[in-house]
Design a protein that fits this description.
Elements (H helix, E strand, L loop, with lengths): L5 E9 L5 E9 L5 E7 L7 H12 L3 E5 L10 H10 L5 H17 L3 E10 L1 H12 L5 E5 L29 E7 L7 H13 L4 E7 L15 H19 L12 E7 L3
Parallel strand pairs: 3-4, 3-5, 5-6, 6-7, 7-8, 8-9
Antiparallel strand pairs: 1-2, 2-4
Helix pairs in contact: 3-4
């Protein structure tokens, strides 16, 4: 068998306005070339769960970076940083997109990178994935895991988040994978259907999967929301999607439309 090894460490990247922020980088050992992935953490913050998922992607051959998007709060724990962000009205979209763009640039600067970058995000990070796919360059594949607020109505918009991500659908140029729970309230099945309608309208390349019997955060092994069948199947779909679009020779053009919406039953 081929040797398997990983390295994971905290690095610094220059984010919005040149701010130097922490990021967790996990990668397979070796000279590469390997694809890259930016992992956008959930609202609970830059926590152990986010770093564990970055390490999982590295084990499967992806140099994965997860920037600490809450670092400016300066609190002692991810939970305290998250509470501070929530109290302020959420993450400012312009700042977040600049931090994500910095993470993409960091990956592209690595000598062992193959030139292709995917993004993945969970909860609020899923919303930010959709926003990034529609507004940033240099993304080859995007994975939205139960991102709430993609379809925000006018009364839900704020100074920090002034435009609903769905309004940037026409700008998406990469393939998009979406994983959702049938029992979720944010996004609800109706929200997902509205997003799919917009993707079809603009002839985008997407794969959506709705897991019956699952709600929000069904990947989270440390929470009651965990659904083993949905999580195992969902991770298989993420890895297959990235293998298709990020490995050498893989396609990534969002205009070459393949469109899938599938419902998957979760055993009781």
């Amino acid at each position: 068998m081929a040797y398997q090894g990983l390295i994971a460490e905290t690095v610094n990247i220059n984010g919005h306005n040149g701010d130097q922020i922490d990021a967790y980088l996990a990668r397979p050992l070796g000279s590469g070339p390997v694809p890259g992935v930016v992992l956008i953490h959930h609202m609970p913050g830059w926590d152990d769960a986010s770093k564990a998922m970055a390490t999982k992607l590295a084990y499967h051959g992806y140099a994965t970076i997860s920037p600490n998007l809450h670092f400016r709060e300066g609190k002692a724990t991810p939970q305290e940083n998250s509470a501070s962000v929530a109290a302020a009205g959420g993450m400012p979209d312009d700042r977040t997109m600049a931090d994500v763009a910095a993470a993409i640039s960091y990956l592209r600067s690595l000598p062992y990178h193959n030139g292709k970058v995917g993004i993945i995000g969970f909860c609020s990070g899923g919303r930010q994935v959709y926003l990034a796919a529609g507004t940033l360059s240099g993304i080859n594949a995007a994975v939205d895991c139960w991102g709430g607020g993609v379809t925000a109505s006018a009364d839900q918009l704020t100074d920090r988040q002034p435009v609903a991500p769905i309004d940037f659908t026409s700008g998406i140029t990469c393939a998009l994978l979406g994983l959702f729970g049938q029992d979720d309230a944010r996004p609800s099945p109706a929200d997902v259907a509205k997003t799919e309608e917009e993707l079809k309208k603009h002839n985008k390349n997407y794969e959506f999967y709705m897991y019956e019997g699952a709600g929000h955060g069904f990947f989270a092994v440390d929470r009651p929301s965990y659904r083993q069948h949905a999580a195992v199947d969902g991770w298989e779909k993420v890895l297959a999607f990235y293998d298709k679009h990020l490995r050498d020779g893989g396609g990534s053009n969002g205009q070459q439309a393949g469109q899938t919406m599938e419902r998957i039953a979760v055993p009781a």
